[in-house]
Design a protein that fits this description.
Elements (H helix, E strand, L loop, with lengths): L15 E3 L3 E9 L13 E7 L5 E7 L5 H15 L9 E11 L5 E10 L4 E2 H8 L4 H20 L2 E2 L8 E3 L5 E3 L6 E2 L10 E2 L12 H4 L4 E2 L1 H18 L12 H6 L5 H5 L8 H10 L10 H5 L11 H24 L6 E3 L2 E2 L8 H4 L2 E2 L2 E3 L2 H13 L6 H4 L30 H5 L2
Helix pairs in contact: 3-5
């Protein structure tokens, strides 16, 4: 049985039994399909355990199909998943359109679902949020894996269209896996001709979407949109902040990035040391014009990508302390109480560590947070859309000093205050 720190310590009864084969536990995420944006009911992704093999897996389940179109979207995702056998893309294990879910109260309900492998350490977003930004070498390692995953998808004529840190997972070897192909679609015909996508359909996440999607162009390239989103992910890995609220000239940060002289943009992050090669790569990947934007092969050939990366063995060692800290943080948050309903994990040592117990001193391997999805959404919302200023601040006379905050430059009066955003200690120190 594969060790799963996100499930360790679960001793309660399962919350349902699927087809008599899979015990369902906590919700680990919400999925979506290409034609059903977030305001509509979305399928849930549940942590599950195979009762025969005792292995953990992820179940994407739809309780209310509702229409033939929804079922068609579900089956399209299944067809795309069935073609993927890359180590950097989530793998399909099983699928059913005649599933039966039995709840603890013995209520039976018809569902459709598919089973994929479970990524042990979960979302890269949560890991960065709790432990801080990466060094350039570590970020380069994961960015290379992300590009390899996209290269594989694009070679199968598949555009993901929802690349974001929440959909980049880490497995038991700390290897990156691209998940959630609910918004994915064919991007090329059998003879290699590109299939343009209608920008009128709302897919992906606004803070990662390319400008041609946000600013209302008629069509866009799924491959170019994936590259743009990957660049935004790379920025957060290294800097610890989103590069902009949205890729639109309405956004003051992206507007600075589109200027010929980008000094004003990088002055925002002047307290964080990043290499000139990284700046150049990010600027060219997040180019506003799709025609000028770097492609996959051009990104691989960029000088920044020639820097050192970790081998698989080195990566596991490099991430060991960070993942241990991440598990401790989650466990301490649960032990501290609060409104989060949780089950505290047993104290244990990761089997892959191969370190003496005296060095590891036994740490909590993680915790089960019922409100993980809510916490994540609120954190991203506060990061991208701070709360409005109090009335006292809005009425402040020009020239009166005021505190600076993330993304608040447009509200400053006079010339008071620094133009740099406050830097968390973890982001400034790397990791």
């Amino acid at each position: 049985m594969e060790f799963c720190p996100m499930a360790a310590g679960i001793t309660g009864k399962p919350r349902g039994l699927l087809d008599g084969k899979y015990e369902l536990y906590r919700t680990v995420g919400n999925g979506q399909f290409a034609r059903y944006p977030q305001p509509n009911p979305r399928p849930r992704v549940k942590l599950a355990r195979n009762v025969d093999t005792q292995e953990w897996c992820a179940v994407k389940i739809m309780r209310d199909v509702g229409s033939a179109l929804k079922l068609q979207e579900f089956m399209e995702e299944v067809r795309l998943l069935a073609q993927c056998e890359s180590r950097h893309v989530v793998r399909l294990q099983s699928v059913s359109i005649t599933g039966v879910l039995v709840s603890p109260g013995a209520t039976r309900k018809s569902v459709v679902y598919h089973i994929t492998n479970y990524a042990t350490y979960g979302e890269l977003y949560q890991i960065i949020r709790e432990t801080g930004a990466f060094t350039e070498r570590l970020a380069r390692t994961y960015f290379t894996q992300l590009l390899r995953g996209l290269e594989y998808l694009h070679s199968r004529q598949i555009a993901h269209r929802d690349i974001k840190l929440e959909n980049l997972l880490l497995d038991s070897s700390a290897r990156l896996i691209i998940a959630d192909l609910g918004s994915a679609a064919r991007c090329r015909t059998a003879d290699g001709h590109e299939i343009p996508f209608d920008a009128g359909y709302s897919v992906g996440s606004r803070e990662y979407n390319a400008p041609e999607i946000i600013e209302g162009e008629d069509t866009y390239s799924g491959e170019k949109a994936d590259i743009f989103a990957a660049g935004a992910c790379l920025f957060v890995m290294i800097v610890g902040y989103p590069p902009f609220r949205e890729a639109s000239t309405r956004d003051q940060y992206f507007k600075r990035l589109t200027k010929k002289d980008k000094t004003d943009y990088w002055n925002i992050y002047k307290l964080i040391h990043v290499s000139p090669e990284f700046k150049d790569l990010f600027e060219r990947i997040c180019e506003k014009s799709p025609g000028k934007r770097l492609g996959l092969h051009e990104a691989f050939a960029h000088p920044w990508m020639a820097g050192p990366v970790y081998s698989p063995e080195e990566l596991s060692d490099a991430m060991r302390d960070r993942l241990s800290s991440y598990c401790k943080i989650c466990a301490e948050r649960v032990r501290g109480g609060g409104k989060a309903k949780a089950a505290v994990y047993e104290r244990s040592v990761l089997p892959s560590q191969k370190m003496p117990l005296a060095q590891t001193d036994l740490f909590y391997t993680g915790c089960v947070l019922e409100c993980a999805e809510i916490r994540r959404r609120l954190a991203m919302r506060m990061m991208l859309h701070p709360e409005p200023e109090p009335k006292a601040k809005r009425d402040r006379k020009p020239g009166t000093p005021e505190e600076s905050g993330p993304h608040d430059e447009g509200r400053r009066t006079g010339s008071a205050g620094s133009k740099s955003r406050p830097i968390p200690q973890s982001s400034a120190s790397g990791g």
